[in-house]
Structure formats: structure tokens, C-alpha cells
Automatic annotation (TrEMBL):
GO terms for molecular function: ligase activity. The keyword Cell membrane does not apply. The lineage of its organism: Bacteria, Bacillati, Actinomycetota, Actinomycetes, Mycobacteriales. This is Long-chain-fatty-acid--CoA ligase. Residues 10-96 form the AMP-dependent synthetase/ligase domain. The keyword Ligase applies. InterPro entries: AMP-dep_synth/lig_dom, ATP-dep_AMP-bd_enzyme. Residues 94-113 have a biased composition (Basic and acidic residues). Keywords: Ligase. Residues 92-113 are annotated as: Disordered.
Amino acid sequence: MHTGSANFYQYAGEVPDKVAVIEASGASVTYGKLYKVANRISHALRDESLQAGDRVALLSSNTADFLALLLGAEQVGIKVVPVNYHLTAPEIEELSKPVEQRPSGDLRHRGVR
């Protein structure tokens, strides 16, 4: 586990009832809740046979769940690749291809900015 997340887990253990995230809706999520969700996610990722070094694409807006997935994946050693939710389906499909299968060149020439 990296130092940043180790600090998070230590702090969450010390002040579980303190607000960690305020959602755009105004709902608040405590450190304790974020800690529990991140742990559940790490176990779910392992249950799916994902392991350290694997990559997972995440299409999400900025939410507490996004943060929990980043923390949970880091527990397992999985790299999260955030995908902007404003991308179109063809753009996401292009990004999901292995690098070797993608056309080379400047993406701006294909309308990707």
C-alpha cells in the first residue's frame, strides 16, 4: 500500500465519524464509511480474480464511490484507469484497445481533444 492510502486508513481509524467527502448532491460521507466501502471493493476485486498489476477502467463522475474504488484497488495493487464520462462510446472503445492496436499519431487529428 502506498503512503498516501496508508495515511488515509490510519486517519480513518482515528476519526471514523469525521466527514471525508461532500458529494455534489450535498450528501456527506465519513472516513469510516469510505474505509468500509474501499475494503468491500478490494475484496470484490479479488473475488473477480483481479490481482496486483492488473488494470481496471473506471467510467464515473466525481463521487465518493470513485474515491473508494481508487482506495480499494490500491489495496490490491490494481491500477485504475479513469475514463472521462463525457467521452462517446466509440472513443471509449478506442481507449479500451491495447496500445499496439491503436492508430499512432496525434489524437487531435481524429477529433479527440
